[in-house]
Each structure stands twice: as C-alpha cells, then as structure tokens.
C-alpha cells in the first residue's frame, strides 16, 4: 500500500508543534533518535525530517508529497507551491527594521541603502513593487546584528515578540508579511497519496476547530434560558437538559476561544450558574 511522504522540520522552532499536531490527529510515529525518516504505526505515512529551507525544493521535485513548513519560507522559495491548510502555530512577521536612531520611517526611505536579510526574494518582491532601489546583503542568521557592525542600514527578518530587535537597538518600520505554519503539497502528488492527504487534512481540521473552541456547560433558571441561548448559539443549537432542581436546566454549548471571557461575563450577568468550561480535542462537523 502506498504511503504519504510528509516533510517536517528536523529541529528548530517548527519541529515540536508539528510532531504534536500529528500526534493529536491520532498518528503514532516510531521515533528513533537521530532518525531522518520514520514510519507511522497506524496511518499510511512516512515522516522525513528535513531543514525548513530545503523543503520547497523537495516538494517541487516530488521527493515528498506534503510538508509542514513556515509560510514565510514558501513565500521566499516556493511561491508556486500549494498551501492546503493553515495550522495556527509558529506565528510571526517578516519585517523591515532600522536602528532606533534612523530617520527612515518606511521601506521607501531605504532607497539607495543597504538591507541585510536571509529572505532576498521576499525583499526584492516588495522593493520591485514599490520601485525602490536598494542593495541586499544576504546573510543566513543573526541578521539583527548587521546594522551594529556597519554591514547594513536596515534589515529584513522574522519578528515575533520583538525582543531580538529591541536587544539590538532596532525598531520595526514595516511589516512585509505575516506567517504561520502551513500544510503544503507537492504538485507531483499521486492520486493514491492525494486520498491519504485528504484524510489527514480532515483530521487536522477537526483538531484545529477543537483548538479554536471550548465546550461550556452551565445551569440556568428556565425563565432565563431564552436570553442565554441567544448568547450561546452553539454548533447548531445548544443542548438543554432538565435538572433535578425544579425550574432549572443544564445547557451545553460550544464557544469560540477568542471571545470566551466576554461570553462568560455575559452569561453570568444573565443568571447562569455553575459554569464549566472544557477543552475540545476534536470537532467533526
Ligand atoms: N521567533 C519566532 N517566532 C515564531 N515563529 C518563528 C520565529 N522564528 C522563526 N519562526 C518560524 O519558524 C520557522 C522555522 O524557524 P527556525 O529558526 O527553527 O528554522 P530556520 O533556521 O529558519 O530553518 P532550517 O530548518 O532550514 O534551519 C520559520 O521559517 C518561521 O516560519
Ligand atoms: O521577535 P523575537 O521573538 O525576538 O524573534 C525573532 C527572532 O527569532 C528568530 O531567530 P531564532 O531564534 O530562530 O534564531 P536563528 O537566527 O538561529 O534562526 C528570528 O530570526 C529572529 O532573530
Ligand atoms: Mg530561526
């Protein structure tokens, strides 16, 4: 039987969360230390542990069928490749930054200046679009040090908390793009492996929906139910069960994680009691 070949970063910022999400979709992987390839025990899948930066070419060549990769790397090296799912972790920006003392306020102010970066294609794309002429210095890491050692007037690199910029006396002046981990596929994927990735994607979507929501249970007097139900639309409509206590009901529903605290405040204000909130492992809709 055919197996889906999926690339995952060997080590680095994406590795742990990539392996976690595979585990959460119920895939067990035999993981020997320093193994570059591993098979799943209960799903037709082989994991290849690769460098993030090498993955676009492997996808293009069909060496792997799919990959969990930073979207920023695809924008830099794999604009032709297909993103099928956004995975919600490793969120970051790719930004332009300059020394705090610099008068530059936008990318335009770097006309004729030197920019250090590990993402030359991305920067060039933005420079071309804005008809800006700047000189790129391509370096592979520690980009934020470049202005301090006189190598560049500005940089383009990944920003997350902003602490690396801060520690190096830099300020962000323009966000070129936002990125997160994504699932991408090879244009050469076989029909057989496409059906396997469809199954994997279905499972991933149920885990991602689960992560985005919470299950809420509460008790409420029957005369308040109508108003409470308006706040809690649920997946379809909330479950209402009678309590042993006369005139009271228990209500079960799903709420979005982002507006969870606001909803809880509203529920309390409308007379809800004994509110329990639980994480959701999977949501299959
Ligand atoms: N500080 C950060 N916060 C959040 N996400 C980040 C951060 N830095 C990088 N990322 C994301 O994680 C990905 C992997 O970053 P990491 O630094 O581990 O690898 P790398 O050195 O770019 O790649 P390689 O695997 O080729 O060595 C990046 O492409 C980006 O999408
Ligand atoms: O805004 P922050 O939260 O400080 O994160 C940004 C830093 O994180 C990444 O570096 P990383 O630590 O991955 O080191 P690397 O250069 O070796 O990849 C990135 O290249 C930035 O330097
Ligand atoms: Mg890094």
From TrEMBL:
Keywords: Amino-acid biosynthesis, ATP-binding, Cytoplasm, Glycosyltransferase, Histidine biosynthesis, Magnesium, Metal-binding, Nucleotide-binding, Transferase
Major localisation: cytoplasm
Record's subcellular location: Cytoplasm
UniProt name for this protein: ATP phosphoribosyltransferase
Catalytically driven reaction(s): 1-(5-phospho-beta-D-ribosyl)-ATP + diphosphate = 5-phospho-alpha-D-ribose 1-diphosphate + ATP
EC number, as in UniProt: 2.4.2.17
NCBIfam families per the UniProt record, alphabetical: hisG, HisG_C-term
Glycosyltransferase as UniProt keyword: yes
Regulation: Feedback inhibited by histidine.
Domain ATP phosphoribosyltransferase catalytic, residue spans: 51-205
Organism (species): Winogradskyella immobilis
GO molecular function, one term: ATP phosphoribosyltransferase activity
């Amino acid at each position: 039987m055919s197996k889906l070949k999926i690339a995952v970063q060997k080590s680095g910022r994406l590795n742990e969360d990539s392996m976690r999400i595979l585990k959460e979709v119920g895939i067990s992987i035999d993981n020997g230390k320093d193994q570059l390839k591993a098979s799943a025990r209960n799903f037709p899948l082989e994991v290849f542990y690769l460098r993030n930066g090498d993955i676009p070419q492997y996808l293009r060549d069909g060496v792997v069928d799919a990959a969990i990769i930073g979207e920023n790397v695809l924008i830099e090296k794999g604009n032709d490749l297909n993103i099928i799912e956004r995975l919600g972790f490793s969120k970051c920006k790719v930004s332009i930054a300059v020394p705090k003392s610099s008068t530059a306020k936008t990318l335009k102010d770097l006309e004729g200046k030197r920019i250090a970066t590990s993402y030359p294609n991305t920067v060039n794309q933005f420079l071309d679009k804005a008809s800006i002429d700047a000189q790129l210095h391509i370096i592979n890491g520690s980009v934020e040090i470049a202005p301090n050692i006189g190598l560049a007037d500005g940089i383009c690199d990944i920003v997350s908390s902003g602490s690396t910029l801060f520690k190096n006396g830099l300020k962000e002046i323009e966000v070129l793009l936002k990125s997160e981990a994504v699932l991408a596929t090879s244009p050469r994927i076989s029909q057989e492996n496409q059906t396997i990735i469809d199954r994997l994607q279905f499972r991933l979507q149920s885990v991602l929906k689960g992560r985005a929501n919470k299950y809420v249970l509460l008790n409420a007097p029957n005369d308040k139910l109508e108003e409470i139900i308006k706040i809690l639309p649920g997946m379809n409509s909330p479950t209402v069960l009678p309590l042993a206590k006369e005139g009271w009901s228990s209500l079960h529903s799903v709420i979005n994680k982002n507006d969870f605290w606001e909803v809880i405040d509203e529920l309390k204000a409308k007379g809800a009691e004994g509110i329990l909130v639980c994480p959701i492992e999977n949501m299959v809709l």
